[in-house]
Specification:
The structure holds two protein chains of two kinds. In chain A, 72% of the residues lie in helices and 0% in strands. Chain A is built from 15 helices and no strands. Chain A is globular and about 85 Å long. Chain B is 69% helix and 0% strand. Classes of the chains: A mainly alpha, B mainly alpha.
Chain lengths: 375, 306
């Protein structure tokens, strides 16, 4: 592209020069307007079109991805046509603006609006003060949810995931490289599976048939083979929660293991050797050298898993729907929103969920701002 | 755990050849745990190719115990996909349409946030402008906000402007919820690209746009792939966002939604559920194992969205 002459104003002359930044700017603005109109028009066309589904999906993908690229390119070219001082002001908007707009529109403003809505009634018409919070902190389903989220999910979910992850990472580190690889791949694999898919897998394991008939669920088959009585595990309160938590542990251990594994491989071997020469056995080496060295990583993983347990939704929704004493906060929120259509209560429960994760968010933020002080 | 004798140090990488009781215990524990981890999935896979009667009358492990008598069939997959609807009560399973929808939701929901986040990461890293630190902290600080706090207001806006039940609505929602992590990961990467790589391009008169598209994006491929793997798995496997923004119309439902519906309406038809679950798993598992290297790099980069 030709750089414009030092003085960007269009020179007075008889001939109208189409190559000046001003004219190019007008042209590109026009093209942008046409592009936006075109994208809008095609959106409504695709939304209401009756095409074969695969074709519609394909067109939609091209439309969405292509549309974003097109708009960004046009905006970048448009800004290039402005005089230098304006250009300097506008370029950050082109690059950072979309991200800021999306985050403000989808996270920041909605949070504030939800906070406001939590003080209004089911339809958002009548101010009801703290009534929704009374519900959120004293209703039976929320009290059950607090117990389940904190006692079962947070405590057992986090500790099992972290401990299993640590054990596997430390042990696999001492095995043959091929064995280590296979073993880690198997433990890690569930990370790719949706919580709904995992729920189908484990619901099948927990499947119950009355005593005497053929058990097709693995767990009850094992129990009966060992001489026990089959049990409907998902109905046995409150321990059914643990059967749900284990699905989460099955999904999350791979995450913990992979991060721990990377950290363990970074522990200097001289440190470990020094410990061994001093006569420490492998257990002592782990507790006195490896673990203190990777303490920060353990904390990071634990906070991530804790966040997951506090927000848990999919597993409960697909396994029990929150029945049989397995209710959790996120599922109450969903139920109030889409079954009861009580937006006020749903908003209050969402705010409670935010408050519950807030300490961890603030901790992460502090940690993060320490790391970006040189920004 | 028994341990190696202290007088005979074991190399951390397991290069010591002599077998010790400690090593045997290590292998035994690992084999036991991996066995527990993989068995349910194997059960799912085997059940999905067994005839319906067999699945409901005997355990899937009987196939392993007595392979000569086992029967295998792909009928469950045909029924689940809706290719062959012999049994009328299964007519509305049709996971094929859900599969197409899931692709249409997950692919743009992965690419759009990458584009927006990469541009923002470049802006934060290499363009000086007032307030950039604050904007950055706001975006990244919202990383672990539970998306439940956003659902109701966004849904109301969508209903008002006609975005509810559309692909675009879900893409934008996934973009909004995934963007903090994306900006964070990509900023960490893009800000460490040495300045002199594009200093000369600037001197040659290249614009920010040219530098971004010609230099930064190609150079950031590992970071982009890392986030892409994350976001693809996240959007493919998501249930909540789909339930909220797509629930109005059965024709636009994604796999997780349909699977949840199947659990409700065909809860005892394990031949169908297992096939359906496997259909929903096959693409993310493939992506996962192909891009595992990048995925792990993203995980170990520090912070993870849940």
């Amino acid at each position: 592209m030709m750089r414009p002459a030092p003085e960007p104003q269009p020179r007075p002359g008889l001939r109208v020069r189409l190559d000046t930044p001003l004219w190019r700017g007008v042209l590109i603005a026009l093209v942008t307007a046409v592009a936006i109109a075109f994208l809008l028009e095609t959106f409504f066309f695709l939304r209401d079109a009756t095409l074969p589904q695969w074709l519609l999906a394909l067109l939609a993908i091209v439309w969405g991805v292509g549309g974003v690229m097109l708009l960004f390119t046009l905006a970048a070219y448009l800004v290039e046509q402005f005089p230098a001082t304006w250009k300097r002001r506008l370029i950050p908007i082109v690059f950072v603006g979309p991200a800021v707009a999306v985050v403000v529109g989808y996270l920041l403003l909605p949070t504030i609006r939800t906070l406001v809505a939590s003080f209004y009634d089911a339809n958002g018409q009548q101010f009801v003060g703290l009534a929704n919070y009374v519900y959120a902190f004293s209703s039976r389903e929320m009290l059950t949810s607090f117990r389940n989220n904190f006692l079962f999910w947070l405590t057992f979910g986090t500790s099992f995931s972290v401990v299993f992850g640590l054990i596997i990472a430390v042990m696999a580190d001492r095995t043959h490289p091929v064995f280590e690889k296979v073993c880690k791949a198997i433990i890690f694999m569930p990370m790719a599976i949706s919580m709904v898919g995992a729920s189908v897998i484990w619901k099948f394991v927990y499947e119950y048939r009355p005593p005497g008939s053929n058990q097709i669920g693995l767990l009850n088959a094992l129990v009966t083979a060992l001489g026990g009585d089959p049990a409907p595990w998902l109905l046995r309160q409150p321990w059914n929660n643990l059967f749900l938590v284990f699905i989460f542990v099955w999904l999350q251990t791979g995450f913990a293991m992979v991060v721990f594994s990377a950290a363990i491989k970074n522990v200097p071997s001289e440190l470990l050797e020094a410990g061994r020469i001093d006569g420490a056995n492998e257990v002592q080496v782990f507790f006195h050298i490896t673990l203190p060295t990777i303490k920060g990583t353990v904390l990071t993983v634990a906070t991530t898993v804790v966040l997951g347990t506090l927000k848990i939704f999919d597993v409960v929704q697909s396994m029990t729907g929150g029945n049989y004493g397995t209710q959790v906060i996120a599922n109450v929120q969903y139920t109030q929103m889409f079954r009861q259509f009580n937006y006020g209560r749903a908003a209050a429960v969402a705010i409670v969920l935010l408050l519950v994760v807030l300490p961890i968010m603030l901790y992460n933020l502090r940690d993060f701002s320490k790391r970006t002080e040189a920004f | 755990m028994r341990s190696a004798t202290p007088t005979n140090p074991v190399s951390r990488t397991g290069k010591n050849r002599s077998v010790k009781p400690g090593v045997i215990v290590v292998y035994a524990v690992l084999i036991f745990l991996t066995f527990i981890w993989i068995t349910p999935t194997i059960g799912l896979l085997i059940s999905s190719v067994r005839p319906a009667d067999a699945v409901s009358s005997s355990g899937w492990w009987t196939v392993i115990a007595d392979p000569s008598n086992a029967e295998f069939t792909l009928d469950n997959y045909r029924t689940a996909l809706g290719i062959q609807t012999a049994a009328r009560k299964h007519a509305n399973v049709n996971l094929l349409s859900a599969l197409v929808n899931t692709i249409a939701v997950a692919v743009p929901s992965t690419i759009i946030p990458i584009l927006i986040a990469a541009a923002a990461a470049y802006g934060f890293a290499w363009i000086r402008f007032p307030g950039r630190r604050w904007l950055f902290v706001i975006i990244v600080g919202l990383m672990s906000v539970p998306l439940q706090v956003s659902l109701i207001p966004v849904l109301r806006d969508y209903i008002k402007i006609g975005l509810n039940g559309t692909y675009l609505g879900v893409w934008l929602a996934h973009t909004g919820f995934g963007l903090p992590l994306a900006v964070y990961l990509l900023y960490n990467y893009i800000s460490t690209i040495p300045r002199d790589i594009f200093e000369s391009a600037f001197i040659d008169g290249a614009t920010h746009f040219t530098i971004f598209t010609r230099l930064i994006l190609p150079l950031s491929t590992p970071a982009l792939a890392s986030f892409a793997t994350f976001q693809f798995l996240w959007t493919w496997n998501d249930l909540l966002v789909a339930l909220v923004f797509l629930s109005a119309d059965a024709g636009t439902q994604v796999l997780t939604q349909r699977l949840l519906g199947l659990i409700g309406s065909f809860g005892q038809d394990w031949h169908l559920l297992t096939a359906g679950a496997f259909i929903s798993m096959i693409i993310p598992l493939t992506v996962f194992f192909l891009l595992q290297r990048y995925f792990v790099r993203g995980l170990t980069a520090g912070s993870v969205k849940q």
